[in-house]
Amino acid sequence: MGDKLLNEGLKWFVVVIWLGWNIWQLVKTMLVYETEDRYYYIRYLTGPGVSVAKSGGAALNLNSMLILLPVCRNLISYLRGSCSTNQFCRRSFRRQLDKNIAFHKLVAYMLLMWTIVHVVAHMFNFRNLYLNRTECNHTFYSDAELSCALSDNAELSGDPNNWINPILSSNPKLPFGLDLILQGLIPIAGWTGAILTVVFIVMFSSATEFIRRSYFETFWVTHHLFVIYFSMLLIHGTGGIIRSQINLEEHNIDDCRDVPETWGNNATCAYPEFKDGSAGSWKWCIGPIFLYVMERTIRFVRSCLKVTTTKVVKHPSKVIEIQMKKSGFKMQPGQYIFLKCPSISHVQWHPFTLTSAPEQDHFSVHIRLVGDWTKQLSKVLGADGEETINPENLPRLAVDGPFGTASIDIFKYEVAMCVGAGIGVTPFASILRSIWLRSLNQKDNLKIRKIYFFWICPDTSAFEWFTELLESIENHFAEQGRAHFLQYNIYLTRGWTTKQAKHLYLQEEQEIDAITGLRQKTSYGRPMWDSIFKHIGEENKGVSVGVFFCGPAALSRVLHENSNKHSKLLGEGARFYYNKENF
């Protein structure tokens, strides 16, 4: 089964640390509210619900702190860059940074779970506190005299602020339990908690893949409700409705809880005095909020810089290429940018991998026309075939980035296996172009000595825009006597007719492939990944092989499984390190 620890070990270590932190927050808070005498009377009124709610709230604070950090793209890129120049920061840690969006989603699921726990527990708490206000002799309380004394403590002690039950009045005449709901919403913690819950549900439900792909603006707008979420979170605890006793010496719980009728009448049992709970959410969230504000500031400033569109090229298979220039723009092979076209939408930013090389005097992206936004972009740029627009009259584009991804680590391996599916070939276009240009300029001092390149395409027209680059690289390294440096394999999964199939069969003995015009023949059907990994492993025993993929999730799972299966942590076998592009 290979050595899963190679690809999964550090990931699961991080997950275990995160889960352990959640459990620690849960247990620590539970013990405080379940065992300390200062919370005895609130426990008596609410039951175990107060401990459950506060434990869930502690876990919510932790995960609310963590939810913002993975989406700080500039912070992730900075950490990635710091690690790439630090010999003590291994590649395994850098690969975890590429899973930032997956961790963001995982934290969101944890927030959902603790939100449910926190809200349901407080629903029971308010129901019990409401009973204490309206029926302090209810059978829920074992000692009616004690529960009534606690309910009326503010009146009995003569201090209107010395209450423990936040429900200070009631109107049982309201139907359908509306009075209970009303009393729950009156305190600061009540109405802020309700807003928090509704906002989180809207954000969570609109972040599904279907909504993101089909109704991006809905996703974008609802996700920016996080401003309301964090605003309410910072306010939520300021009401301090869960109060603690502060005069335990004058009012000893063990001596006084059984004799509420004597409270205030003797020196040993004064009336219990209570203080508000302190707000703790800000301590957890202020740091990440500051970092995210800085993140958005950097994005805004960078997006305002002028971008010059120098060329727009329409390629086959519904792909357009946009070549641009921007002052101070510096990139590495395999990086990506976020692109916005204000004439289409002022809120939509879309990620695209750079297909140019740092050695070129411009940067470019190749965009497949699959959605409303990309089709509108093609139209406003004059690439829809109707008319050509002078570059000076092209609409303004805004660019944020570049940002680092897994692909930039390819130069840290001796052997690399690159797999692109359809338009997923774009990061490797940048990498291969950079290697080619470095070699032309006699700057080929790279650690990498072998690249296995696999491109899986759905139809014949998808090959056309990329084959020119492959042909140039193929010829260049053949002339240098290094034809073995790039071993590429192109797979056509569908898109040929019976007539084309007969023609391809007759052309099989030709030196040049009938479809691509390259020396390497096109394969038909899907790759046999198990055999491919086995073959590469046998050719590179004892070598670390970087596996880089950009494409659909289904193929990613297959490659990930094979990377684990064919890796040999010990012995002479190859070690396959799996890396996937994440935006």
Quick structural gist:
By secondary structure, the protein is an alpha/beta fold. It has 21 helices and 14 strands. The chain has helices at residues 5-35, 40-46, 49-68, 73-84, 91-97, 100-134, 144-151, 153-157, 178-185, 188-205, 209-214, 216-223, 226-236, 253-256, 281-303, 372-380, 426-440, 464-479, 498-506, 529-539, 553-565, and strands at residues 244-245, 274-275, 307-315, 319-326, 336-340, 350-353, 363-368, 398-403, 415-421, 450-457, 486-492, 523-524, 544-550, 575-580.
List keywords for this structure.
583 residues; alpha/beta
Notes on the structure:
- The protein has helices spanning 5-35, 40-46, 49-68, 73-84, 91-97, 100-134, 144-151, 153-157, 178-185, 188-205, 209-214, 216-223, 226-236, 253-256, 281-303, 372-380, 426-440, 464-479, 498-506, 529-539, 553-565; strands at residues 244-245, 274-275, 307-315, 319-326, 336-340, 350-353, 363-368, 398-403, 415-421, 450-457, 486-492, 523-524, 544-550, 575-580.
- It contains 21 helices and 14 strands.
- Helix 10 (188-205) runs antiparallel to helix 13 (226-236), helix 13 packs antiparallel against helix 15 (281-303) and helix 17 runs parallel beside helix 18 (464-479).
- 47% of the residues lie in helices and 14% in strands.
- The strands form 4 sheets. A 6-stranded parallel sheet has the order 12-11-10-9-13-14, sandwiched between helices. It has a 3-stranded antiparallel sheet with strand order 3-4-7, with no helix packed on it. The chain has a 3-stranded antiparallel sheet with strand order 6-5-8.
